Amino acid sequence: MALSGVFAVVGATGQQGGATARALLDAGATVRALVRDPERPAAQSLAAAGAQLAVADFDDPASLRTAFDGAARVFAMTTMTSGRGTTGEINDGILIADAAKSAGVEHLVYSSVGGAERHTGIPHFESKRRVEEHIESLGLPATFVRPTFFYDNLRSQSSVPEDGVTVVRLPMPDGVPLQMVAVDDIGAVAAAVLIAPSRVPTGAVEIAGDELTGSQIADVFGRQAGLPARFEALPPTASGDDDLQAMFTWFATPPSYQADRALTAELDPQLQTFEQWLDGHWGP
User: Fold this and answer.
1) Is 284 among the domain residues?
2) For the purposes of burial, counting CB atoms within 10 Å of the CB of 57, is it exposed (0-12), middle (13-18) or buried (19 or more)?
3) Sign of torsion, CA 118 124 128 129?
4) What are the tens digits of pLDDT across the range 156-211?
5) Which of 60, 157, 223, 251 has the most CB atoms around it within 10 Å of its CB?
6) Do residues 182 and 265 touch, judged by C-beta distance below 8 A?
7) Contact between residue 75 and residue 142 where contact means Cβ atoms under 8 Å apart
């Protein structure tokens, strides 16, 4: 049965937006997919699945406001990887919130990050918190979905084994559990909240599908490859820039992420463990 109202999805051709749009379509919702280029294969795939396409560009605020016209509920996320860093991310989030408020959107689901509200000092966590704070300042009805570490970030670990051993290296100590989640499950949770915001009565939920130490992550890769496995801890400086170094330093001192895994599973009955996710994503 189709759900009433239009559900607008910002960044619908991206990972989180695409997952949310697909989950909404599967639930029978009317989806308006906001895209920069409607001719892109990802946009055309959404259209073929039944989504409306609306052109919207952060460089053209009026286009975003127009794309929200008549939408009952909106999903949005922001990223520091646009080339404009965390400042650009904050500006994008403010633009989205202001446009949603102006359009009279009844509820906004913003995908933030686990720990955003806990003053982590991690630049790309703090930028998302600034967006949350702006949304709150507008009095716009909203729910913050706060994902933990993405399984997808570990894809690079499925590399060629070394001397017949699967080796996983991460800039964090072993023995410290890391909470993680699949992008598809972020979309499933976001869709569930968009459809029924009252399912998250606190207005925010931190989400995870699994919690594993470095050695346990290595063991999963080893089972997939049919090989012995080991984990090697790297120093946080090996992560590269200051932002990621701050994040891995935060991971090293638990508790870092604090997901509500019971509520996550309630919102997404198909929630995947890391091993289940890797079963469907194994390979180069």
Assistant:
1) no
2) middle
3) positive
4) 776 668 999 999 999 999 999 999 999 999 999 999 999 999 999 999 999 999 99
5) 251
6) no
7) no
Query: For residue 126, what are the contacts with CB-CB under 8 A and spacing of at least 6?
Result: 86, 116, 120
7 alpha carbon, distance to own chain's centre = 18
Domain count for the chain? 1
Domain that holds residue 107: 6-279
Helix ranges, the chain (H): 15-26, 41-48, 61-68, 85-103, 123-138, 183-195, 214-225, 242-251, 261-267, 274-279
Q: Residue 144 has which token pair?
A: 């913050």
123 contacts: CB under 8 Å, gap ≥ 6: 80, 86, 242, 243, 246
- Output the six-digit token pair for 180: 């993680």
Q: Does residue 262 fall inside a structural domain?
A: yes
Taking the alpha carbons of 239, 242, 248, 252 in that order, is the dihedral positive or negative?
Answer: positive
Q: Which amino acid is at 34?
A: L
146 close to 116: Cβ distance less than 8 angstroms: yes
Is the Cβ–Cβ distance between 124 and 249 less than 8 Å?
Answer: no
Bridge-based pairing of strands 52-55 and 178-181 is: unpaired
CATH number at residue 238: 3.40.50.720
In a domain, 1, yes or no: no
Question: What confidence tens digit (pLDDT) does each residue in 65-95 have?
Answer: 999 999 999 999 999 887 788 999 999 999 9
